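BUG: 3D viewer hangs when loading the predicted structure for this chain

Environment: internal workstation, default settings.
Expected: structure renders.
Actual: progress bar stalls at 90%.

Input used:
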Amino acid sequence: MNRSASLSKAVPGLWQFGRYFWPIIRPQWLLLTVSGLALVADVGLRVLEPWPMKVIFDYVLVPARSDDAARPAPLADWDPALLLVMAVVTIVALTSLRALATYWNTVSLAIASGRVMTQVRNHLYRHLQRLSLGYHNQARSGDLIVRVSGDASRMQEVLITAALPLVSSLLTLVAMVLVMLWLDWRLALLSTVTLPLFWLAATRFSQRIRSASRQQRQQEGAVAATAAESLAAIKLVQALSLENAFAAVFAEQNHRSLSDVVETKRLAAHLERTVDVVIAMGTALVLWFGARLVIQDALSPGDVLVFLSYLKNAFKPVQNFAKYTGRLAKAAASGERILNVMETEPE
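Structure tokens produced before the viewer hung:
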């Protein structure tokens, strides 16, 4: 199963949500464009980050290997002290530029998503006001309140804390794999050996996480509904001495909600730990084979350092996918709950 298929299974509601509210999203094209350009700059600078360290290892710390074929000639005759200064300054410059790009990326998307979700919340509230009394008699008011406030806020939060880092990591993965293939195709292919193990784990847990997240949101809505309805009728509840009965119902629903939260966290944590083991296996393979190539003078020590740095960062999308699957699944469940209301036609 390919990556797009497993991702679409993990968050099927997000695509429908975006299509439904596209007329609201489209006016934010300028902010989204700025965010996209900053994202591309962030990825490019991230790819360049380990190269100053390669220069330091190959031309400053290991000068005795000046006759190696794996060590390019253009910098071989430079003064090591000058190269060291230039490499250190470059590290600071790349990090500063990437921080600036990340800032504009995050801020632009935050403003755009805030504007969009504010309008979504307004549309949802107005639509609820137009729905019939029959619909409101069947629906629980507390659950509707959660959809207007909690679900809309969760959608906005996930855009910043999950969707954006995931897209950034995936683009970084593609760029780093291309550079690794350019450096040494054998080592690059070896670094991808463990990827099927990750996708097996991801596809196994993503659907279960999404199902648990949907059940969690339903229970949270039930808890809010029970609290809102009992407090709204508190005079009648006290007059009939129903406090203990409502408290027992609330406690039971609250306990169910807690169980769903724990199950979602347990599944996400299991996926993350599985990914950690897979990454360790990939790193060990690359380090072993890369060291052999250095001994054979097929690569320089700096090349292996770049590979290990890329491997660590290239697997971040894997880690992020595992980490953010739960959040994206919760956002999908929230999006589905909002669309369920919006697609209900007023009588």
